[in-house]
């Protein structure tokens, strides 16, 4: 599916999910027609009950996308909120996979998750401690309060930061480019 739509800047396609986006309804008509034509030509069909048309907010690939930005899908936040404390390595890795998908929403994620990551190593015997429990609860709480992420306004200055814990280049601010 992705290869069919890669050339179109107004489409995100992943497996059988397609999102067509634009800034206005007027701009939306032509991209919508193009996507429908590609689907028709390739003899691909959409299920009407899975479609949303002319909306300004959509749940897509575990995220809610709206004019004000990108946020974690509320149903995923609820699922993580209800997540039980892992009792074995498999459950822990499952949690890390789900939570890691949303790492971009949690400031200092790499530092917060470090105790659990250490326990995930192959040579470390399973022993869930109070330290792991604290990290687990802190990460879950951080996702409950995840911000709405916005694209930068390229007409204004902005700063890019990273939370690559223990992998910082000399702890200094660096210029990425000048206008």
TrEMBL record:
Q: Which SUPFAM superfamilies match?
A: DNA/RNA polymerases (SSF56672)
Q: Name one Pfam family in it.
A: RT_RNaseH_2
Q: Provide the alphabetized UniProt keywords.
A: Multifunctional enzyme
GO: which molecular function terms? catalytic activity
Q: Which InterPro entries does UniProt cross-reference here?
A: DNA/RNA_pol_sf, Retrovirus_Pol_polyprotein, Rev_trsase/Diguanyl_cyclase, RT_dom, RT_RNaseH_2
Domain (Reverse transcriptase) spans: 1-65
Checking PANTHER family in the record gives: PROTEIN CBG26694 (PTHR37984), PROTEIN NYNRIN-LIKE (PTHR37984:SF5)
Stated name of the protein:
Reverse transcriptase domain-containing protein
């Amino acid at each position: 599916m992705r290869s069919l739509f890669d050339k179109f800047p107004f489409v995100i396609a992943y497996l059988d999910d397609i999102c067509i986006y634009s800034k206005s309804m007027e701009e939306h008509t032509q991209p919508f027609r193009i996507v429908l034509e590609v689907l028709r030509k390739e003899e691909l069909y959409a299920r009407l009950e899975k479609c949303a048309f002319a909306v300004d907010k959509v749940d897509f690939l575990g995220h809610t996308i709206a004019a004000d930005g990108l946020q974690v899908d509320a149903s995923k936040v609820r699922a993580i909120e209800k997540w039980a404390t892992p009792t074995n390595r498999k459950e822990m890795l499952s949690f890390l996979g789900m939570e890691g998908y949303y790492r971009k929403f949690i400031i200092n994620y790499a530092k917060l998750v470090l105790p659990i990551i250490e326990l995930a190593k192959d040579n470390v015997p399973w022993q869930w401690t109070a330290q792991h429990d604290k990290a687990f609860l802190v990460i879950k709480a951080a996702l409950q309060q995840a911000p709405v992420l916005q694209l930068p306004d390229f007409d204004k200055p902005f700063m890019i930061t990273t939370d690559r814990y223990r992998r910082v280049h000399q702890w200094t601010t660096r210029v990425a480019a000048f206008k």
